[in-house]
Design a protein that fits this description.
Response regulator; 2 domains; alpha/beta; two-stranded antiparallel sheet; about 55% helix; globular; Tscrpt_reg_LuxR_C; transcription regulation; six-stranded parallel sheet; Rossmann fold; phosphoprotein; transcription
């Protein structure tokens, strides 16, 4: 059972999200919060697998709450759920340790898919957000790509392969099946990759994989091990 914390200052939004998640028998909302500070306290009390946080909340906004959860409860995956899709919010959410970013205007199926992906250790961006990130990375700065390629060159061929699959949005279990290894081996690779690339989480590693050209159009292009 995937345990979820739901934080939004609007009761009607919380009720709607809870109703969508209730359609999946494998997901349970174990706590709700109406502001960011309450969300952090609830997460520490209930230790959910996933925290769904609205960005604009009183006392402590969702971005600040995500950063606190990343520090105090790193086992809890954070998904930002908002009506706002501006680049500033996307960048701050991902750099703050969020593992997912969903728009409230998106397909309800994205919500369930996102919760399942983040609970499984993967990153998840709504299609609109993913398109924005990929377009920004792919449209632009050659210097950024060069620096990213230089950083990933320090990885072993197998680590680059794992990074490419991680960048394509696969969970540890899916990567293990793809590479015909046990999941514990993948976890060790991911931990080593995050350390060697000096990134906080899987989302930042996935962005770096896009910048380095290891992932194109959402499909992995790993080098042979």
């Amino acid at each position: 059972m995937i345990r979820v914390l739901l934080a939004d200052d609007e009761a009607m939004i919380r009720a709607g999200v809870r109703a969508i998640l209730a359609a999946d028998a494998g997901i349970e909302v174990v706590a709700e919060a109406a502001d960011g500070r309450e969300a952090v306290e609830a997460a520490l009390a209930h230790r959910p697998d996933v925290a769904l946080l609205d960005i604009r909340m009183p006392r402590l906004d969702g971005l600040a709450a995500a950063a606190e959860l990343n520090r105090l409860s790193p086992a809890t995956g954070v998904i930002m759920l908002t009506t706002f899709g501006e680049d500033e919010y996307i960048a701050r959410a991902l750099s703050g340790g969020a593992s997912g970013f969903l728009l409230k205007s998106g397909d309800p199926r994205e919500l369930i898919a996102g919760v399942r992906a983040v609970a499984g250790g993967a990153a998840y961006l709504s299609p609109q957000v993913a398109h924005r990130v990929i377009t920004e990375l792919g449209g632009g700065r050659m210097a950024v790509g060069a620096r990213a390629r230089e950083r990933t060159e320090a990885l072993t061929p197998r680590e680059r392969q794992v990074l490419a699959l991680l960048g394509a949005g696969l969970s540890n279990a899916e990567i293990a099946r793809r590479l015909h290894v046990v999941e514990g081996t993948v976890k060790a690779y991911v931990s080593a990759i995050l350390t060697r690339l000096d990134v906080r989480n899987r989302v930042q590693a996935a962005v770096l994989a896009y910048e380095a050209g290891l992932v194109e159009g959402g499909e992995e292009s790993p080098r042979p091990a």
